[in-house]
Specification:
It comes from Suillus plorans. The protein is mostly helical. About 70% of the residues lie in helices and about 0% in strands.
Length: about 600
């Protein structure tokens, strides 16, 4: 199985984000790279009507009496508002008595207009209290009538009345989600920080499949509730997964196939030993000659031309069996790289059907099976390859890669060693052996293997880059940056285009070492100037933007990462971050008074 330096890179960025997770996400625990976005502190939401602290105490008191049978994720809790009156005593008693008398009959607009402010306020409160009782007794339609009359009588818009009526609509059979949304809209117009109304509207929006709006509300509720509401936080994760999965399916069904970045493709092909070009038949056909041109373009790292030429060769027709197998192998490889896993599998299986001894095709079929989570079938392919050519060192290298990613490091090391014994000129077998030893905890042997590899391959950047990664893992920052610099130097000395991963690694190392975000961004920006489609550089810039609270830039970077994603899991991951960040950005726009406060806290937590 062909893994790349970018694979190792993404393991490291996962560690980077995990170390900084308090500053990196809100509710994206399911994302592949990390568990977080920018964590925001928010002041407690205002209790609608009446004293803030008393409102909080009332909420806590009533929350202990929740009855779980009511169909409202926020529970049947209905906030109490004590009506404000000018005087106490007998006057208050008279108002209450009159309110209880008036509650039995609906009042006309004219009758309401004749009432004093105190009378209307008292009556509205009494109607609401009756509504609460009806709600607790599961008489939801009658409760709706009481809250509706309270809204009509009240002298001003009281958000709690609308929110309580929305809770009733949520529990009708069938629920009236549209009316829930309308009432919560009214409640939030009066009090934008009303968390219960946000949660109720979010649940209704989710039920209406208005998922992005639901995510907006759940995100705001989570932040405003200071991350104390586990239900809202889980809802953010649930909605993000739903949005990202649905969007990914649409994108993949409509997106034109295309190659990943040069960095990714070149690393993939570099994981296979170079094989001699096939010998053409005595009288080659046009398709035979075109195939040879495709293989020459591949050797020259001209991948776009290699794709078009191999497709052209297949259309023209190839005259000899080995040539057909090679063409199917190459076309299947490009299909795999462009995300057409099913098409890749068909071509590669056809290749070994024609020419079973083409072990590279068996190895690539194993890669396809691993991508589909079919580990047993992958190992069966390696056994087939060994049966046909037990002396092919690539078989053992790639089997080692599969064992490595399944954390079977000892068996992986044995396979890397076997690969090197058959051919010690392949640098990646030595590098991966050193990494496997490191994972096994054999630090001295690992470092010695790396030093020996750097000596034996002085003009290769890969040993320097990988060694730098292990040094960075040990927080030996000066040595790590020195190795990344040496890798960059070696890459610049080669014919263009260069492998930019050492530049990205250097940026990440500088950030972890000095928290110098500007320097880290310069490294990633330079990498993107050289390879505009380098996904690790885009992913790092997105995370660095989150670290600084620059959510608008992070959104742009995650959108770009989604464009570059090759596989469905990569796309879902990028979309998860994109929509999580977009929801946070919308929060800062809807609550501008909190934006700078939140950005300052995000920055302080990054230090």
């Amino acid at each position: 199985m062909a893994t790349t330096s970018s694979t190792s890179y993404f393991e490291r960025i996962q560690d980077f984000v995990a170390e900084n997770k308090k500053v990196v996400v809100i509710g994206t625990a399911a994302a592949a790279l990390a568990v977080g976005g920018v964590i925001y502190y928010a002041s407690t939401s205002r209790g609608p009507g009446g004293d803030l602290e008393k409102g909080k105490a009332r909420d806590k008191k009533k929350s202990s009496k929740k009855r779980k049978t009511v169909n409202d994720s926020d529970g049947p809790l209905l906030e109490e508002i004590k009506p404000k009156v000018a005087d106490e005593g007998q006057y208050y008693y008279n108002l209450e008595a009159r309110a209880h008398h008036q509650i039995e009959d609906a009042l006309s607009v004219e009758e309401i207009a004749k009432m004093s402010v105190e009378e209307r306020t008292t009556l509205a409160g009494t109607l609401k209290t009756r509504g609460n009782t009806l709600y607790q007794n599961r008489k939801f339609q009658q409760a709706v009538d009481m809250y509706t009359r309270a809204i009509q009588v009240a002298t001003k818009s009281e958000p709690v009345y609308y929110s309580n009526r929305a809770a009733c609509y949520m529990n009708l059979t069938p629920p009236k989600y549209d009316l829930v949304v309308q009432d919560c809209d009214e409640a939030l117009r009066a009090d934008a920080s009303y968390v219960k109304a946000l949660n109720r509207r979010a649940n209704a929006l989710e039920s209406l499949s208005r998922n992005q709006e639901a995510l907006r509300d759940f995100t705001a509720a989570t932040i405003l509730d200071k991350f104390q509401n586990e239900s809202a936080a889980q809802a953010v994760e649930r909605i993000l997964k739903k949005i990202a999965t649905e969007k990914a399916a649409v994108i993949l069904s409509t997106r034109e196939p295309r190659l990943p970045s040069f960095t990714f493709v070149s690393a993939y092909f570099a994981a296979f030993r170079v094989r001699p070009l096939p010998t053409l038949p005595e009288n080659p056909s046009t398709g035979d000659n075109t195939l040879l041109l495709a293989l020459q373009a591949l050797a020259a790292a001209d991948y776009a031309h290699a794709v078009s030429l191999v497709n052209e060769a297949m259309e023209q027709g190839i005259s000899w069996e080995i040539g057909k197998a090679e063409a199917l192998n190459l076309r299947g490889t490009f299909k795999f790289l462009m995300g057409d896993v099913s098409g890749a599998k068909d071509d590669l299986y056809e290749s070994v059907k024609i020419y079973p001894s083409l072990t590279q095709s068996w190895v690539k079929i194993a890669s396809v099976h691993m991508e589909q989570g079919e580990g047993t079938k992958a190992f069966e392919c390696f056994e087939e390859a060994i049966k046909h050519n037990p002396q092919d060192p690539d078989i053992y290298y790639h089997r080692g890669q599969v064992l490595f990613i399944t954390n079977e490091f000892k068996d992986a090391a044995d396979n890397y060693t076997k690969s090197s014994e058959l051919d010690d000129t392949f640098v990646f077998s030595h590098i991966q052996l050193a990494v496997a030893l490191y994972k096994m905890g054999e630090l001295a042997r690992s470092m010695a293997t790396f030093r020996r590899t750097m000596t034996n391959f002085p003009q290769r950047s890969e040993p320097q880059n990988y060694y730098g990664e292990l040094l960075l893992d040990q927080q030996r920052f000066v040595d790590a940056v020195d190795k990344f610099d040496r890798a960059v130097e070696l890459e610049r000395a080669k014919p263009p285009p260069m492998n930019v991963l050492p530049l990205v690694n250097k940026g990440l190392a500088i950030y972890q070492w000095k928290q110098d975000i500007a320097a880290a961004e310069r490294c990633c920006d330079e990498a993107l100037r050289i390879d505009p489609e380098c996904e690790p550089a885009v992913a790092t810039l997105a995370q660095l933007s989150l670290q600084q609270g620059k959510i608008d830039r992070a959104v742009e970077m995650f959108e770009r990462q989604a464009e570059l994603a090759r596989s469905e899991p990569e796309l879902i991951n990028a979309l998860t971050y994109q929509y999580a960040s977009t929801a946070q950005l919308e929060f800062t726009r809807n609550y501008p008074e909190m934006a700078e406060q939140l950005a300052q806290i995000a920055r302080s937590m990054a230090v």
